[in-house]
Structure formats: C-alpha cells, structure tokens
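Posting for a labmate who doesn't have an account.
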Amino acid sequence: GDFDFVKEEDEDKHLLPQLKKETVKALKEAKLVLVSWPSQKTILRHFSIKTPIEVVTPGSKDYSRENYLDCEIKAFRKFYGLKEEDKIIVNYGKYDYSSSFDMFENVARILPQYEFFFFGGREGMFKNSVRFSKNVKNQSLHYEDNIPLELYHSLMLNTKAIFISDPYHVDSLVLIEAMKQGIPIVSRKTPFLFDCLIEGKTALLGKEEKDFYSLLKHIDQTSFKEEAKEFASNFTIERYGKDLLEAYKLVLKEYK
C-alpha cells in the first residue's frame, strides 16, 4: 500500500516503533523516494526524511464494459458463486491488528443485503487468523486471498462500492481505477490520502460504524460519480510513464 508502515493504532506496542524505525532508516539511505500523493511527501518530511522525494501518481486504464465479453464480465460472480442480483462491496489491502476489521465485520453484519469481500489478507499472522472462520457465521462476509489477476477486471465491473475500513494500507491505483469506472468509494478519513479521497467529490468519508451503515445503505444515491471520473481522468498510464522517466533521470544525475 501507499503507506503500509504507518498505523493509527496497534495492539502490539512493540511492532509499530520498530517498523517505523526500520522504514525511516531505509528511506534515509535511498537515492530517491517515490510517493503517490503530495500529502505523503508532507508526512515523510514530518519523519525528518531529507532524501529527495518525487510525487508520481499511478496511471490507470479505463474499464469500459464494451471492451469485455459477457463471460468475462460475469467471471467474478461465477467464480465466487454469486447471483446476478447480489450486490458486492469490496474492501482490500493488508491485515493489521487495529479495530478497522472489527468495524468492517460489524458493518457487514448490519447490512446483510450486500456481499462484503476483503481481498489481500492471507499473509503472515492473518493466515491463521480466526477472522477467516467468521465466513461460516456470516455468509455475506468473505475473507479471501489476493484477487486473481484474471478476475480483477470482472471485479471492477461488478462492484457496487469500495469500502476502505483501514486507510493505512491502501493501493491508490485501485482507487483511481474505481473512480474511472464510476464505483463510489467509502472510506475512513485519512491524512495520507486527503488529496485523493475528497469528501463529496471523489469519496464519501466517515468515522464510525453508523456513518458507514448510512453511506453504504444509500450508496445508489451517490451523485458525485462524474466528478470522480473527471478527477481520475488526469491520471493516465502515459502520464505515469513520463513522471517515472523524469524521476529516474534525477537518480541518473547522481552517477554522472
């Protein structure tokens, strides 16, 4: 994720300081640090990172339904045994020990009309987590491995909303692609993506379970999809390539 070394809370008090220390040390030794958003550059400066930092926002493609066969569009539903009328809410990232997953599960419990999926968790400690057993207790809650690449496009064409319960482990490329597809993003407020997740323009932001219950229950009434598409249209693969080239040119100058 963009900032997977920063956490708001951590039940293991020894994990966070050590993780930050190692990350900061690595960043200080780097020739150049690439971040996705200006807000992230500001945060790294707060950690006293003096290394040159360049903002290179990921570019993405557009997912037009006209470019896919009907079987390709339905592939995600077929693989996970979902009906055509099932409404899909997707959460993704990396598991941590914060309360964000408790919130995710509670929201899924009080909104049984949706199928809630979390992708990206079966690594490290989460492999043996009791959370996977909750799939049995709540049949609309699905903890899955990373989404298979061949199903990713189908997922983006079937998702009702992206729900980010833990904004500290987020790949902003997925957010940009969701915006281009017209998929509403519902997220906790985060300083790490405040210039990407803009309230009422590119995302719906909340803090507590009751906020997300209301936002997701009425997700079909979202009115800012076109604004989000316009915002995301600036981030193309071509632009991403040019920005990367300029960043690497800066590194090459160090060796001349």
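Reply:
Got it, the structure tokens are right above this. The beta strands are 33-35, 53-55, 87-92, 114-119, 141-144, 159-164, 185-188, 204-206.
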